[in-house]
Amino acid sequence: MTKLHKAFLAVAVTAVITTMTGFIPAASAAPQESKKITHIGLMVQDMSNPFFSAMERNAKQAAAKIGATLNVQDAQVDLANQNTQIDAFIQQKVDLIIISAVDESGIEPAIQRAKAAGIIVIAVDTPARGADAAIMTNAIQAGETSCEYLFSQMGGKGKVLLVDGTPIQTIIDRIKGCKNVAQKYPDIKIVGQQASRNDRASGLMVTTDMLTANPDVSGIFGMNDPAALGAVLAVEQAGKAGAIKVTGVDGSPEAVEELKRSGSPFIGTATQNPGEMVRQAISLAQDMVDGKHIASPTVLIPSVLVTRDNVDSYPGW
Fold this sequence. Notes:
Residues 1-29 form the signal peptide. This protein has ten helices and 13 strands.
């Protein structure tokens, strides 16, 4: 087993348990009679993002393993959709809702309705106010990991663009992590930051705009892999593939292929593990049903750097 494979498995098994800035944990779920989780609702932000399709695939496997049904709903990055989906899950009398919230504050009233109906609610990927627990990547560390590598590969100097995303806590924290690292490099200058919609098309658009205003940059950090790969397209369309380096966050299959593509400006990604998030969510919910003590309402899964040097040993999603 390779060093990277061991590291990836290790962080999946030994997640860092802590309290994440910006997450206000709910009171513990009301005591319930011991029973099995048999009906699960999974709510994702945007199924067009490979991260969430991987989450769905792994959730199906985890649900089947315990004999539970799984109903998956795509919010299409719309809070109103998630409100409606939670109300539908209440009517369906699911035991557990696993949610990647579009709006961590705006979804709270719907979560409270679900909890009042006796449903356990666990947030994954990003916090959700009122949820019983949250299982996420350590987003600050992921941003730090990706940008530390980017800045080091730039020789510790140069101008940088940040391809931001929708204003949810996990994305805010990745950008924060990147800026934390930038403070250690006096010759690194962040000269542009624009928000994408977390996808490749908008990543291409905002990067193209920023490159027009800042043609002499030498590094770009994309807060997720789809946006970072959009930035790669913008760099190549501008004829700057040899002058600009790009990193992202996710460890997605598309990022893996890009790392293997000769001549690509894309040089690294800090991993997430969507499968581990949903597996831990289901396991934690069963522990809550069984009345077991929950050590912390927030589980942060460490991120691992994948580059051209170790991509062949990365197990992926």
